[in-house]
Predict the 3D structure of the following.
Amino acid sequence: MSLTPPIAHRAAMDGTLDRIAIGISGLCVIHCVATTVLLTLLSSAGALLDPHIHEVGLALAIAVGVFGLGRGILHHGMMAPAVIGSFGLGIMAGALSLPHGGFETFWTLVGVSLVALGHELNRRAGC
């Protein structure tokens, strides 16, 4: 039996998980901006407008957020990163209920930014 922690645990402890979450947030920003630009330029942006992309993205963000931000509370005891990140996840979830377009994009970007901020604060706190 190996004494080396599982890869996910190692990734969580050295900040890799938070960096991955920040990268995913960045991809979401790129997706939102690209969709808005394409929607403006074209009458239809095809697969980028598929609601399933947003549902899968939110599910992924929640999974990584729960693990990464929750681990931060256990590791360094600071609630602020988890509170900020969770607030962002809630905003992202609420944005799914809006019609596709301007307000949905705006609130999604606000939520994604807060999630990324939460993960960055978590990373800086030593996780």
Remarks:
- The helical segments are 7-13, 16-41, 51-76, 80-95, 102-124.
- The chain has a mean pLDDT of 78.
